[in-house]
Amino acid sequence: MKLHFLAAGRLRMTKRVFVRDADRAETIELPVSSALIRHPQGNVLFDTGCHPAAADDPEGRWGPLARIMTPLMTAQETVVPSLREVGLDPADIDVVVNSHLHTDHCGCNAFFHTASVLVHAEELAAARAPDAEAMGYLRKDWDTGRPATTVAGGFDLFGDGRIVLVHLPGHTPGMLGALVTLDRAGTFLLASDAVSLRTNLDTDTAPRNTWNAAALFSSFAEIRRIETAGARIVCGHDDDQWQTLRHGGAGYD
After folding, report:
1. pLDDT tens by residue, 6-43
2. What is the mean pLDDT of the chain?
3. 249 lies in some domain
4. CATH number for the domain including 11?
5. Number of domain units in the chain
6. Contact criterion met (CB below 8 Å) for 28 and 60
């Protein structure tokens, strides 16, 4: 089994969204990533990142959200071109797991026509709520016309303990992380926006875009337990950490 981290976009946002004492004018650059897991029973893509159309026409793709998130990538710096760098096309992906259904995590779902899509049941319900668009859920991204498979709680994707989905609510109701256990590199927790930046976990602070702070702090406790057991925590948008990870074809096994 092998794990590859793929570029799936890049954003600029106000730093105070994540770091509460930051200056109001300060901004932060945020990598958007996808993770390819090559399992003997199928190729799994954890998150699909930003849609390439957002690179050239952010307001046309994202509407008012474009005032909050400024794309810094080109269309070539999204997940489908990144996937081709490791020799795969969208048709080679068997399963897409969406950690949650915000536009920067499911924006390219529509390109994976033949893959099964897994999402937490509570996340799908949140995306269908009347106020969903104001909460960052854009139907054009998550509703591709094909039904998603929903999970509740944790879920062992192939029944062998190698890819285990973990419910980590807080940022959103149905946030999923993925525990990936490799033969040589050990265990990674793909935490997505359960830990947007490492500083949030280290200082026990909730970003301003948190759905439920109490739930997030409970998820932080579970993430610390997982880390203490030996897993490497991979944050959703931490650029300092992103620079230390192997990207593209230089994966982990």
Report:
1. 999 999 999 999 998 899 999 999 999 999 999 999 99
2. 96
3. no
4. 3.60.15.10
5. 1
6. no
